[in-house]
Amino acid sequence: MNVPASKSSSPEETIHGHGLRMTDQRRAVFDVLMGERDHPTAVEVFTRVRAKVPNISLATVYNCLDTLTACGLVKTVAHERESARYCPNLEEHAHFFCESCGTVSDIPLRPRKQPQDVWNFPADFSISHHEVSFGGTCPKCAAKAAKQNRN
Ligand SMILES: [Zn+2]
Ligand SMILES: [Zn+2]
């Protein structure tokens, strides 16, 4: 079970809390995830990090991602049988998978709502974490489809 990072502490403090250091490589991987929040796979992270740290290996990127995930700075997103994707958004949110273009969007939980407010949980279940995903059509693909229908 991952320990969630507290929102007030910096990534450095969070990683120190786990007895680890924010190395340059971990920082570079974290910056890539924070930069473009499109839920990249490890290989996509590797491609982006290599632009800044040319000699980094894929194995190192995997190690950095494992460390950041274990420290609760990043979450993994699993979808069907695809490779894991990485998400640095620590707010409560669900993922929306576009069935047309494959993009993954963050869908925030409504303010002041908890999963228990939305899902009908029997009283004896205790929630430690939740992971919700939706599938459908993203706005871009919906607009494209609407345009095609007009022609
Ligand atoms: Zn996300
Ligand atoms: Zn789409």
Verbal overview:
By secondary structure, the protein is of the alpha+beta class. It folds into two domains: 11-85, Orthogonal Bundle (Arc Repressor Mutant, subunit A); 92-150, 2-Layer Sandwich (Dna Ligase, domain 1). Helices cover 38% and strands 14% of the residues. The chain has helices at residues 11-17, 24-35, 42-50, 58-70, 115-118, 139-150, and strands at residues 75-77, 85-87, 93-98, 104-108, 133-136. A hairpin with a 5-residue loop joins strand 3 and strand 4. The longest helix is centred in the middle third of the chain and has 13 residues, at 58-70. It is flat. Bound molecules: zinc ion (2 copies).
The low-confidence runs, each spanning 5 or more residues with pLDDT under 50, are: none
Oligomeric form of this entry? Answer: single chain
Largest sheet: number of strands, sense, barrel closure: 3 strands, mixed
What would CATH call the class of the largest domain? Mainly Alpha
Ligand inventory reads: zinc ion
Order of strands, main sheet, comes to 4-3-5
Distance between the termini: 51 Å
Quick one: overall form?
flat
Our count of domains comes out at 2
The average pLDDT score comes to 90
Class by alpha and beta content: alpha+beta
Number of helices: 6
The CATH architecture designation of the largest domain is: Orthogonal Bundle
Number of strands: 5
Give the SSE string: HHHHEEEEHEH
Binned strand content? 5-15%
For the CA atoms, what is the radius of gyration? 18 Å
Helix content: 25-40%
CATH superfamily of the largest domain: Winged helix-like DNA-binding domain superfamily/Winged helix DNA-binding domain
State the CATH topology of the largest domain: Arc Repressor Mutant, subunit A
